[in-house]
Amino acid sequence: xxxxxxxxxxxxxxxxxxxxxxxxxxxxxxxxxxxxxxxxxxxxxxxxxxxxxxxxxxxxxxxxxxxxxxxxxxxxxxxxxxxxxxxxxxxxxxxxxxxxxxxxxxxxxxxxxxxxxxxxxxxxxxxxxxxxxxxxxxxxxxxxxxxxxxxxxxxxxxxxxxxxxxxxxxxxxxxxxxxxxxxxxxxxxxxxxxxxxxxxxxxxxxxxxxxxxxxxxxxxxxxxxxxxxxxxxxxxxxxxxxxxxxxxxxxxxxxxxxxxxxxxxxxxxxxxxxxxxxxxxxxxxxxxxxxxxxxxxxxxxxxxxxxxxxxxxxxxxxxxxxxxxxxxxxxxxxxxxxxxxxx
Length: 343
Known about the structure:
By secondary structure, this protein is an alpha/beta fold. It has one domain: Rossmann fold, CATH 3.40.50.720. The chain is 42% helix and 19% strand. The protein has 17 helices and 13 strands. The strands form three sheets. Strands 3-2-1-4-5-6-11 form a seven-stranded parallel sheet, with helices on both faces. A hairpin with a 4-residue loop joins strand 8 and strand 9. Helix 4 packs across helix 5 and helix 12 packs antiparallel against helix 13. It is globular. The termini are far apart.
């Protein structure tokens, strides 16, 4: 008897690879066939997936609904995550990047709606900041995911009784990213991170983004009676920026580096002036979280209570932000610590 198929969109990305890992882990493998979907089946990440049992790798063009329909054929379960394409953002601006991701997301959910075998769709998205803030915040990389979610919950889609939306918090690896990397002062052996957010302000972190989205997705699929028709907050921990900096310093020490992190809240205007359009994108996101209660900023815009890791019973399995940082190889962590410059 053939195994039920889980189609994973973006299987070579952090979230998608985590989903594949969650369903192929010891004690969990053998129950499903994973169809790993990617735009390029020849990358090292794709080749790694091909070596796994009960996993096949298939090419998909998210700009073509016909391609997506073919990729979803006979799938019982679908996990889908789209990206706010950085190359489009940098070359054409945030509106073009938003429109590109919106189109790909709609192709995914429309194809899912036309997949007769589908039992459960897990859509990885972000909260509708514009609606939640009553129009005060229009954040392109948030809003680019909303048309797909609106389609899921619409009566005409037929997906509301076959879907769960997962809103994923900040990645534990964010200090690798340019706007979060901070200023390195090798002579003082310090890393100073400066963003427009109060040090005592709290943020939801997914923690280890290479593991935890998969654990959430597996738990969602295994508990349809709880999760169908609901929004799940993909958060492993709610921590302040000051605590985040303390975690970075702890990691430096545990990795044997005589280095510490510091934090300085900057103004929104200075952040945007320095970083340009990218600074506005991230600055608007941080201002949204700074000016709203953490619970309100991640709410289900339909008014239903949001499910948490505790509700799903998965909180003890999740890997923290500190776990993600400690688990990085030297090349990965060097993007944060600039270790080579302080040796």
